[in-house]
Amino acid sequence: MNRDDLTVPLRLLGVSLVLFGLLYQGSLMAIGSVAFSNNAAGSPVYVDGQEAPVGSQMIGQEFRPGDPEDAVYFWSRPSSIEYDAMTSASAQLGPNNPELSERARGDLRNISRYETPDDSVPVNLLTESGSAYDAHISPAAAEYQVPRVANQTGISEDRLRGMIEQATKEPLLGVWGQERVNVLELNIMVRDEFDAQNAADRNTDMNAPETETGERR
Amino acid sequence: MASPPPIVEYAVFFTLAVVLIFLVGEYLAWVYRDQANSNYELPRLLTGLQRLDSVFTPIENAIYRLSGIKPKREMTWRGQVKAVLVFNAFIWVLLYVVLYFQNVLPMNFVASNTNQQHYSGENLSVFTHTFAIGIAMFLTPATGLALMPAFARAFNNDEDPRLGNFYENVVRGVVRFLLPFSFVIALVLMAEGSVQTITSGKLTAETFTMGVQNIRVGPHAGIEAIKMWGTNGGGINGANASTAFENPTPLSNLVLTLAMPVSTFCAIYAWGAWVGNRSHGIALVAAFFVIYAALTGVAVIGETGPNVAMEVQESGLTVDQTAGNMESKETRFGPTASAIWGLSTTGTTNGGVNSMHNSWTALGAFSLLFAFATNNISNGVGTGLLNVLMYVILTAFIGALMIGRRPQYLGKKLEWQEMRYVFVAILALPVLVLVPLAHAVVYQPATDAMANPGFRGFAEILYEFFSASANNGSGLEGLGDNTVYYNLVDGAQVLLGRYVPITVQLAIAGLLAGKKTSPESRGSLDTDTPAFVGLLIGIVIIVSALVFLPALVFGPIGELLSGGI
Predict the structure, then answer these.
(1) What are the pLDDT digits (tens) for B366-387?
(2) Distance (Å) from the C-alpha of residue B538 to the closest C-alpha of chain A?
(3) Contacts with B216 from chain A: Cβ below 8 Å
(4) What is the 3-state secondary structure (H, E, C) of B485-541?
């Protein structure tokens, strides 16, 4: 074997480390931090009154039918990893797996405790996403929850539909991808409105303390 | 604006794919015009590309100097095989060293353009992704690219065994093909919302209802781009491109899905340009594109249909499945775009996923496995062309014998030496998949790893072995595959499944290059006609169906016929 046969690939590997490890990733990072700084940092969402972000626009959060405290919010999709975004991936249950049917039954049971505009629940609300932290639900799944959220929060159904519209993203040029509703965005609006309502209620009530807002984790 | 119907998404995708395959194919043909020993000229429409020489040539010359590459030093097929093996061995060593110090079982990982991910991406540090996985994701597809012009020489050379310089081809492939396209794709991803940072490792949020949520961040955009363009698969997140940081929007999904067929089919198109007649390339693209589009259609039908496990009734409620099978699929993509991705990732050796294939319907899972059975239809970047040509040479051989002519392809006589190697290349996949499969189903530790019962469990192992042997790297991930058994078997499959075909393919190139080019006569079989395309499709389906039908019956076909029980 010629000496070149070994030194050439070794040197090429060294050049590659610099080219792909430093230059490629580094220049992307530089461009990202200048041109798309919010995206490159993970699209954090901030709300008034707390320093840390309330979440990422890209990453879903857990709002479950099984949890009574979540009843004032729009529910997100089921997640076997409870929306832990340090990991990813669904439980990958096959269509022949009894566990999948069992999970769907459990969710239907929880959903049936509240207002149900239709006996047929949109599949989006009962299926786990691939990443297991889908940030979105389908417009049908959001619409299905309007009567319940209206009842739980006292916000009018029309107002809630307006919020859904605001949180809805369209498919690309109408020909690729799906219409979808960002659950976190929607629930931030719901919470703001809910809090404002509570504050207004308390202001009319002379006995209530003036500035306290609902305590939430 | 409501969501588009499946047929619209299907039509949009395949139209764009055809246009891009033509454009990128011409570009790739131009990149390797001299290395393929061809008299290629750019079509008038694209002559502007020549100006890129002034950008790329200085970069390439700098890399040649730094690495000590002498482009003029040509290699025979033996020299090429040696270079491939040594170069790839060094890549393995680099990965091993870095991963070893990451305290991750360093048994079974990317090197052969595979990303047979048994680790979940999340177990690796940002450093590992940037300096080991990221490097391998460029160099292994570059290895595949470098072999194409060598194979084109087999037909362009007239009694000349020289096949060019492997390292020159690697460098050109990286500088002109992999880097620029990946860079553009990464920019699109970042604009759409992908994260790209190496600083903190995580984003901490204080949520309303679930307390603190930690969110992993890293160099997602850069890794994602090359992982898709280089048919690498895998990714920083275990759930790959179903996670929003790797694949944030429908637009990013469209770009990434197109990257898979375009990066592989463009080479098949370029083949025609190299051997002097574009119609040869178009014929091959047509044959494999028909299979790809048809299987994708089957998958779309399967996935837009209902999931049998969701046909339940409870407390007076049922499930409205008009939206299709949404289990393990993202809302923003929906069943159609997920099905198109699924067949694009198994129709190439990509292996990245944007939905979890294990939750697909029986019909969808069948089309995935059938795509595997044809050795991933268009296969990988570079190696795909070579694998496709094995089927083409076989078809030319059988076709000529059927009409009583002497078998030849593009003016080179096909004789027993070449055909022997062609059979090795074609039979490598079934041998590597079916023999271990027969063992695995009767071996307790292997069956214990199945996540689902019955037919689906069998399909999981079949998929796993296909995935490893055909250098795909995705999984019906339910299989708990990070066990000693699967690491050993798949490790062997990854190695043999890649380097055995490469070696025999280079041997074929060497044999053919040394032969005289005989002029096409009226008697020889035309290899760029619709009749040849039809015969080629038939051969591909018959070979894969004959070999794999029994296994498919025990898996998805059985599930389908039994109504998904």
Answers:
(1) 888 888 877 666 677 777 888 8
(2) 32
(3) 85-87
(4) HHHHHHHHHHHHHHHHHHHHHHHHHHHHHCCCCCCCCCCCCCCCCHHHHHHHHHHHH
